[in-house]
Structures
1.
Amino acid sequence: MTSSAKGSRRDFIRRSAFTSAGLLAFPNLVPASALGLDGTVAPSNRIALGAVGFNMGMTNLRNLMGVRGVEIVALCDVDTQMLAKGVAEAPQAKTYRDWREMFAAEKLDAVTAALPDHSHAAFSIWALNRGVDVYGEKPLAHHHAESLAIVEAAHRNGRVWQTGSWQRSVKNFRHAVELVRNGRIGKIQKVEVGVPQGLTNTKNYKSENRGTAGHPPSQLDYDLWMGPAESRPYHPKESHYFWRYNLYWGTGQVGNWFTHHGDIALWGLDLDKPNRGPLEIRTTASYVKDPDGSWDVPAEFTIDADLPGGIELKTSTKMREGTCWYGEKGWIYVNRGKTEASDPKILNSVIGDGEWHAPGNTEHWRDFIECVRTRESTVAHVEAAHSAFTIGALGLISMRLNNRKLRWNPDNQKVIDDSEADALRTRRWRAGWTS
């Protein structure tokens, strides 16, 4: 990272709503071992890694275990059945149910976590404030102010961050972004992002081993699972995986899928930076209520975002999944396993030595570990994750306010002239979870 890049990021944090408004109060905690040091891990040394969450996190654990020099020293999950899955992969590691105890007991270089959205910020900031590099899942957080706080904590503590937006390390996504960034379809006018429809009461729900309303299964420590969120009664339709369809815990397909395909869209526009948009958000949403009242995110939605340069970004559950950029000279579409263009010859274009090339490599988890060693920025850096999540978070706020149009100031990271909407960027946490 160049010194000018570091400076611009510091400037962004200095201007942000997090520092100016104090939306979340996280003390500036730097471990004594880091004082006077740059935090570099020598290439010849092992990387002591902790892993948290094994419902959705097994892929991360297995891939990071396969990187040279990585040693799994600690495993943590609030569900003993899930924890057992991690132990089967790394039987030598110590086990924990509370990640706060893990950080207190272990000397970790890095950590990977796959947690429900509502716990992303509490965990991430706890780790970053203790000098630990983080491989964290998307979406970056549950609320916008939490996401901004993660960015600030990563910078304040000089930590490496990699988001699980692994499409950035897949060859066809990287090539599509390179084609767009290098002008193969001219100036971009519009981008479309298609995401899957959300869960509705017409889709199957598997209830086995999920407990009954008010009674979590015996293997689950529900109090720990709630983490920083204020207490609320247990419901099986809000536990493993299905939490994402309740706004108290999750962010629906906005956080689940837009943060994948929308991230690629912004990367292709060189707008994957917090102070480069959006400028305005408009939404439509269709709510299909669950009979039990648990799933409350829109099953169908559209988010229109006005971006700098007169570019419109449209996200919808009614378009084919993936990302499509429309330029003056044609279009390029990319999705998992597929790349198309208005003229097939565009896809055969070679990116020259003097042109922009996607950073990183095609091994997403190795990219993280390499950056832990070199202290360079990862391909899925924290600013990119925050930029994509900002559009999604504002979209959800708009939907909650009956599809209210929102204007956004990217410099101070606030909703313009709408205190009600701006207040929805954050929420209170329970005592004991603020690092």
2.
Amino acid sequence: MEDANHIMEEFSKNRESFFSHWANTFRNIKSYRFFINQLIKINIQTEFKKSFIGLAWLFIVPILAVVMWVLLNGAGVVDPGDTGIPYPAYVLLSTSIWGFFAEIYKTTSNILKANGRVLLMNKFPYEVLIAEKIIVHFIRFSIPFFVNILVLIFFDVSFTWLALLFPLTLIPLLFMGAAIGLLVALLRIVAIDISNLVDEFIRILMFMTPIVYAPKLSMGWLSEIVRLNPLTYLIGFSRDVLTKGTFYEIEIYFIVAAVALLFFLFSLSIFKIASPKVIERLINN
């Protein structure tokens, strides 16, 4: 009986500590909202002032990717299956959603390497910098996304009211990319080879995700990988909500979304605990 009471007491303490930890995280973001806004302005202005072509790359890169895959499809090299909408529109939208995942991974995985000295010299909560990166990421994604809408309209893709849910459907994808990125940010300082391997795996992962082909693919072992890949459901759900007004594998999507949220909370906790030690190592090196 005493052991049971002890276990319940420990559980209660850990639960209170957990909620206190995350309440403190949200308080920090709220307290530093002016600082976050200033960081966002500096980040956006710096990027846009570099050159016009720097901004134009947000449009050029996805369009070039579409042209390449459309040519391969026309030559018979790629058999995408039944995509449900015209192939150029399908590839452009899919690569944009994939880019949403890949770019937040890239941004968060370099957060310590790029800002380590700033964090050491200026004492402010780490979640402030993470919040700034996420908001800037949404802003950068919204610019080329308008090109997607125009292309979909050009190809006579009809929209339903469910398309309004599209931004919300991207949140689990954001959690997944940021969670992986935050862990790799630590490894990029203490285990560079492992972080490089993860970078390469993320690039390869694109071809194991239904980006340039339909989710229901009949290609042996690749079909099984696509079925087991959690990004298949996160990306497919967002894509279908926008273009078809339907929910792709809704039960699996919500399971994967819940896992992505828990994974993000876990990664953020590890990141906040380990960052001070990792930054010291960065400076010493």
3.
Amino acid sequence: MSIVIYHNPKCGTSRNTLAMIRQSGEEPEVVEYLKSPPSRERLAQLIRLMSIRPRDLLRRKGTPYEELGLDDPKLSDDQIIDFMIAHPILINRPIVVTSKGARLCRPSEAVLDILPNPNIGPFIKEDGEVIIDEKGIRRV
């Protein structure tokens, strides 16, 4: 199985996650989900694979979350998914799917838990945060 990342190139967390995947020796299928949103069925499948509720995948910052009243606890899971399909910016990212599972990679180093080869060597995030030091020690 190849690795798939649902990616937003404008997001630093997403860029860091993609860089870790590539540093592991894999070239993932990159889905820019704002340009090519997942189908309703695929989004529901991703949520099941991650063992989360749809509400756990909602992004609030920089989205119409508040205007749409998505903090209303009466909204059903199906309604939340419908909003994410209508407004893909509401889907939090990056989502990564590998043979070891699926995960919302926030923080980006969460991807290491599902990479087939998590021994990626030293890695420093764009903001300078050391994730894996020069001795191979994970700093999380």
